[in-house]
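Hello,

Following up on my earlier ticket. Below are the three sequence lines again, exactly as submitted.
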Amino acid sequence: MPEGHLIHRVADDHQIFVGATVKVRSPDGRFMFGAEELDSQTLQSVDAWGKHLLYQFKPKTLHIHLGLEGSIRFRKAHTLHEDQRARLLVQDERTGDSFLLYNPLHCELLSSFARKDLIRRLGPDLLRPDADPEITWTLMQRSQAGLGEFLLDQSCISGIGNIYRSEILFLLRMHPHRRAGSLTREEFDTLWRLAADLLEVGRHHNAIITASPKRLGKPREQMHRSERVLVYRKRECPDCGALLTVERIANRTAWFCERCQSG
DNA sequence: TATGTATGGTAAG
DNA sequence: TTACCCTACATAA
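Thanks for your patience. The regenerated structure is below:
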């Protein structure tokens, strides 16, 4: 279920494990080698970069990417739950709290070189305070891609997934086939700020919410699933009522309104 | 119960 | 560009 907001939320939540000496196991046996290497080590830090989670040990880093199907569950101490389906179990030896990892795309150990290389390949992460928009701006000016394709390219800007893509472009009234390189600096700044704000809201609420609470007349917490987004998987434009265009862009389905997103 | 689809990414062709 | 990964869930039958 992960776009960047959720990965950062996990990293936030997992700060409680930093400094802990941990018990590490691989219940499904598919990460035995790595689990043995990390067992009884002390966790130095937990970081999110785009859709990647990095758990720093010495000298190696545990790299987790949830992909499309992965999930992470937190378990309070003493709620003993032997789940053989989990790829990874990490337990804080001080508190007994643990987390379990299921169906990840990646669960592997990285050398410090491989860690740097991974981060180098990623574009600026909207949710990181050190994110440098100038890098994305430069890439965008040179890009031949349409906006819909550009926003999903994690090497140009990281953290945005398929739901946020459609939602951001709708809110900006920008057509997904408009060339990324055609944006003015002002338009880019607006895009960057909007995307960062939306991801921050998602991180806070642990859910993708792009609809305005004011417009609906209820707080975000009370919004129904279908009310939280504007165009993703919808039939009609929430503004003009026209049928939305559904099209695969960069190998993923995109929803947009030809009438409202003309720019 | 069967079918279709997917909030992501990689690698083969 | 396409197949694949091979799970979870919603919807159709």
